[in-house]
Amino acid sequence: MAGAAGVDRERRGWLRGAPPPRWVRALPLLLIVGVCVATLMSPDPLDIGFLLGAIPPLAVLSYGPLATALLGTAVVVMLNVPAFQLDRPGRTDVLTVSFVAVLSVFVAFVRSRRDVQLDTERTVAEAAQRAVVPPVPERVGAVRCAGLYRAAERGTLVGGDFFDVRESPYGVRAVLGDVRGHGLTAIATVASLMGAFREAVLDRPTLEDVAARLDRRLVVDSARSPDTELFATAVLLEFAPGADQVRIVVCGHPPPLLLRDGTAAEVPAVPWTPLGLGLPGAAPPTGLDVPLRPGDRVFLASDGVWEARNAAGAFYPLPELLPALAEGAGPAVTADRVWADVLRHCPAVRDDVTMLVLAPGRPEAGPEAR
């Protein structure tokens, strides 16, 4: 299947090239039609044959080598059709246009090969990202879940944020974090942290132990990395088996918000250092237990949400807007609404955006409960 997909992508690149804006794709054809109509309708010869020389280079921007060759051939044919009177002496050099057409085909071939390679690399990177940070299930134990991930690099799923929700012998445990940097360079660190988390949630009796395990994992990785500033921030949660209490450990990350009775308040968790710093003499992480009531929801977000700025430089006011956005909505709808509102506030988001919405207890009825 992977080989067939690669062949199909290469065939698409050969025939069509990368998909440009529609108006760019239309330019070569519009030029051909315009020159034909103008020369046929004009009672006097028009000196506009030079416009045809722009068609092959324009085709390179929009089409693959085959289509570029066809358009270049059409240009050369038009220059030799007497009815168009485009190849009068001193007006248009057919040899020059022919050379430009051949050169354009070569450039289109090189570009299409590059596009196929980039498409393959992007597909592999996105598959790796989905394997490392798969979508969270709608329910884990007694907790309804929804996660949203948007990478800062447009057109890719790859980024430095991560989240996961797992059931363990000690309750439902969750993590949301942000590795320094984004893109392909962050995937190895995310994979290492996710592997450590998924192992620790099963055999570490306390949430503080899980945080310490992640910190140690990143400290070890930092010693072998050329990046001297490798670290990550994270929030870890542990819902008690009855989902009537959540324990929270904050490691250099913005604290979660507790949605309750139409309000959103930051949980006053005790902050700990970011993961991977390895500070000598640092105190161990300390968790905070928060009792939960029916209908409570816990909202976690990365810096891409908290630090999104509008044109005036104002940060996105998440605590103030979240209650209205989450009203009558389940975890998935809440995350989608917040993302849409972040884009309204800051259309050009420059950081990875990650959200995790956790709702302990029974799901509410209705489509908005998703």
Give a verbal description of the structure.
- The structure is a single chain.
- It is built from 10 helices and 12 strands.
- The radius of gyration is 29 Å and the shape is elongated.
- α4 (65-79) runs antiparallel to α5 and α6 runs antiparallel to α7 (207-224).
- The model is unreliable at 1-18 and 363-368 (pLDDT under 50).
- It is α+β, with helices and mostly antiparallel strands.
- The chain folds into 2 domains: 2-127, no CATH class; 135-369, PPM-type phosphatase domain (Phosphatase 2c, domain 1, 4-Layer Sandwich).
- A hairpin with a 5-residue loop joins β5 (232-239) and β6.
- The protein has a 6-stranded antiparallel sheet.
Structural class: alpha+beta
Mean pLDDT: 82
Task: Give the number of helices.
Answer: 10
Query: How many angstroms separate the termini?
Result: 33 Å
Q: Could you say which overall geometry the principal axes of the C-alpha atoms support?
A: elongated
> Strands of the largest sheet, in order across it?
1-2-12-11-7-8
Order of H and E elements: HHHHHEEEEHHEEEEEEEHHHE
Report the helical percentage: 40-55%
Total domain count? 2
Low-confidence stretches: 1-18, 363-368
* Name of the CATH homologous superfamily of the largest domain: PPM-type phosphatase domain
User: In percent terms, what proportion of residues is strand?
Assistant: 15-25%
**CATH class call of the largest domain:** Alpha Beta
CATH fold description of the largest domain: Phosphatase 2c, domain 1
- Biggest pleated sheet: 6 strands, antiparallel
**Radius of gyration computed on alpha carbons:** 29 Å
The CATH architecture assignment of the largest domain turns out to be: 4-Layer Sandwich
- Count the E strands: 12
